[in-house]
Amino acid sequence: MSERQKEESPIIETDAVRAMDAALARAPDTFAAWGAWLDSPPGRYLLAWEQAALDDAVVDVFGYHALQCGTPGQDFLRSNRMPHRIVAHAGSDPGLVAGTNHSLLSIDQFEELPFASQSLDLVVLPHVLEMTSDPHQVLREVDRVLRPEGRLIVTGFNPVSLWGLRETLGLPLGSGFLPPQSRLISLLRLRDWLRLLSYTPDDSQHGCFRPACSSQRWLDRFAFTERAGDRWWPILGAVYLQSAIKRLPGMTLQGPVWRKRFSGRVPAPVATHRGTCNRG
Questions:
Q1: Which structural domains are found in the chain, ordered by start?
Q2: Backbone angles phi, psi at 260, to 5 degrees
């Protein structure tokens, strides 16, 4: 673009626009790194637990339209019976290997969803909030497209876990364990965000209690920690699943207040005999 065209152009390039362009350019790399991490032994271990947990979470959710954002290589909606199921991805190569009865949609970013307001009955966000630069905008956009009484399901890494501890200690040294550019969001913070949007969080689930091991051999050695962790320290799992229902704030209807009618008549006094009659 020439200098004259820049002067005549009504579009002014600001810092916010540059930041948005940088986020769009970085999004495919972020989700590509996420897909590569899922091919590792801890990634496959994570997907196995999340697939089983989401199969139980979405099986009894009814409606017409369901949406899964991210992780197109895994069909987290396979147990749901809605007639229209959509898997949206933000990368260039979806790598879809699972699922047949759904549509595949390619979008630029999850901060702007190409759906009408209040048109979806179920939205699943598998680690999407951790991979985006603006998780608040993602939740606001999901709130826009979700119907009242619709269900939102979010999965994320638990900072209060062995995996979160290794990520916190190893990231400053350049040896992080979790996917790059992932921002850990605690379950308590996520619940606060959902309540601010008038959602009612359901009971959460935690899983993946094995230590942060990069090899399949060591993960198999600590298989005994699954049952022990689920019983003795359930909130210390490496991953959590939070389900919430969208509530629509409304007014409390009250019946009409009927005023008592006043006829204007004063009741007649009643004479009572209080003494005895004296005879002369």
A1: 37-209 (3.40.50.150)
A2: -70, 130
User: CA-to-CA distance for 42 and 96, rounded, in angstroms?
Assistant: 20
User: What average pLDDT score do residues 84-106 get?
Assistant: 73
The tokens describing 54, both together, are 């989401």
Rg (CA), the chain: 29
Classify 3 as helix, strand or coil.
Answer: helix
Strands 239-246 and 199-201: antiparallel
From CA 74, how far away is CA 62, in angstroms rounded?
Answer: 21
- Which SS3 state, helix, strand or coil, does residue 148 take? strand
Stated pTM of the model? 0.77
Please report, for residues 39, 124, 207, the alpha-carbon distance to residue 218 in angstroms, rounded to integers and kept in the order given: 17, 31, 17
Helix locations, the chain, DSSP H: 3-8, 15-38, 41-58, 128-131, 135-145, 162-170, 187-196, 216-221, 225-232
Helix axis angle, 15-38 to 41-58, nearest 10°:
100
Give the confidence band of 254 by pLDDT, cuts at 50, 70, 90.
low
User: Distance (Å, rounded) from C-alpha 237 to C-alpha 230?
Assistant: 8
Contact call for residues 124 and 28 (beta carbons, < 8 A) = no
